[in-house]
Task: structure prediction
Amino acid sequence: MRADEVRSMNLEEAKAKLRELRAELARERAIRRGGGSSENPMRARELRRAIARILTVIREKERVRVP
Result:
């Protein structure tokens, strides 16, 4: 997910996407900790970076809203 895609979302959509990605990351981590192997080992890294992008954009939007 690119930052411009997140910026085009409203605040509630971005927060919903954040919850979705965090849940997916938790599933990936559970698979690895359980001794299994993920279908895509780089997915956890992609998820962490997407979460960081969303959090960055959310904070940008919140700073603009509050004078």
Observations:
- The two ends are 29 Å apart (CA to CA).
